[in-house]
Design brief:
- This protein has 17 helices and 13 strands.
- It is of the alpha/beta class.
- The chain has a domain of about 55 residues.
- Helix 1 runs parallel beside helix 3.
């Protein structure tokens, strides 16, 4: 008679030597859940010894394991989990109690409490068992300035590398507290989008010596103006920044000008300026900014950049390293497409997004003849008033380039159903 429990260690060995992935983790958890009790200790020891190379983010606690802990039951498999996701619904009382008092939570490195109905993070973050956190997400909880101050005063969070506080009702007072929190000096990513930071809050960030190690800063929709952008550009963390999002702030060409003359943004690789009031003048400033010479990705959708701005960005000496450019939902016309098509090459650009502009058939036909088409990996044009002639020209041009990612089907649909 066949063994109803195939050799668990053989199955674990196959899974643990596979490439780490969500699917492999799910299969591993399933195998451990079905493991006979007599073999479980050996199976857990084997798994623990071989999971060291797995990223924490790929080791989420299954719901059944968390439910056991929240109900006060011992779950031996829990020791393998590194991520706990409790986002999306208010935390019940037993969950808060478990977070506060269960020592088994000491293995958790990543905790997601976004939209968990918290108004006071002290409810869970006063736990002495959450001292190994590397990543914490409290987004969409109205913790306010008092909650930010509690975070700033909690030395148990000294190991944090990522802190997400999107839409948390934090204002300039809360930002001031975070900026002065010495135990947050290990932070590499700080997400403050959709908060009431303002230019005064940006000024507090500009003196944040404790945050000098930041590499990723998200200030999307933070109520900034040119003065706020200028403050951030010279903050202590500016020399280490690799990614910055200033979208949905009214910084305009004045704020862009401050970024362009900042002396310490040379490590910046990704700059996101969507819905930021940019015009052709702002694009021209970006194109000649010495601080942006190594920029890889520029996203500036839903602004007011026209044909002159497009040409400046693609000919500018400062953006020669650019590989991804998103200028969707701007004011680029067929004239801009003509100028673009006349360029011999686009530097290192591989991804160009021009969706939702004003390029018509004539512009599309010119793009179809562009000498640099074969060097692109993606060209997006949906949402432009391109008719059948333009679509046909592009389809013929794209046919010999099967690797090119495009959205001609969306243009076809628009032609058939205007």
């Amino acid at each position: 008679m066949a063994d109803p429990h195939p050799d668990t260690l053989d199955l674990l060995r196959d899974l643990l030597y596979a490439e780490p992935s969500p699917e492999t983790w799910a299969a591993l958890c399933d195998a451990l859940d079905r493991c006979p009790h007599a073999r479980l200790d050996a199976a857990l020891d084997y798994a623990r010894d071989h999971l060291g190379r797995w990223p924490d983010a790929l080791r989420p606690a299954p719901k059944a394991w968390w439910d056991a802990l929240a109900d006060g039951r011992h779950e031996p498999r829990w020791a393998l989990a590194r991520t706990l996701d409790l986002s999306g619904a208010p935390l019940p009382a037993n969950a808060i109690d478990a977070l506060l008092h269960n020592p088994e939570l000491g293995t958790i490195a990543r905790l997601n409490l976004a939209s968990a109905g918290l108004t006071d993070p002290c409810e869970v973050l006063s736990s002495r068992h959450l001292t190994h956190l590397h990543a914490l997400d409290l987004s969409f909880n109205a913790i306010g300035d008092n909650g930010a101050a509690l975070l700033a005063d909690n030395p148990a969070l000294a190991g944090l590398r990522e802190l997400e506080l999107c839409a948390s009702a934090i204002g300039e007072v809360g930002v001031a507290a975070l900026a002065d929190a010495a135990h947050l000096s290990g932070l590499r990513r700080l997400g403050l989008s959709s908060n009431l930071i303002g230019d005064t809050g940006a000024a507090f960030l500009a003196r944040a010596q404790a945050l000098a190690g930041l590499t990723d800063l998200d200030l999307n929709d933070a109520q900034l103006h040119p003065e706020g952008a200028a403050a951030v550009a010279v903050a202590p963390f500016a020399p280490s920044l690799e990614r910055m999002d200033l979208s949905t702030n009214d910084i305009g060409s004045g704020g862009v000008g401050a970024l362009c003359v900042a002396p310490d943004l040379r490590r910046l690789r990704t700059l996101i300026l969507n819905q930021s009031g940019l015009d052709d003048r702002a694009a021209e400033l970006l194109a000649v900014a010495p601080a942006l010479e190594d920029l890889d990705t520029l996203s500036a959708w839903d602004n007011h950049i026209g044909d002159r701005g497009l040409l400046a960005l693609l000919r500018g000496r400062a953006l020669r390293a650019l590989s991804r450019l998103d200028l969707s939902a701007n004011a680029i016309t067929s004239q801009g497409a003509l100028w673009l098509a006349q360029l011999d090459r686009l530097g290192r650009l591989t991804h160009l997004d021009l969706r939702g502009n004003q390029i018509a058939d004539g512009g599309a036909q010119m793009l179809a003849r562009a000498p640099w088409l074969g060097h692109l990996d993606a060209l997006k044009l949906a949402g432009n008033p391109i008719g059948p002639r333009g679509v046909d020209a592009l389809r013929r041009a794209f046919a010999p380039i099967p690797s090119l990612e495009h959205d001609l089907d969306a243009l076809d649909d628009a032609v058939l159903d205007p």
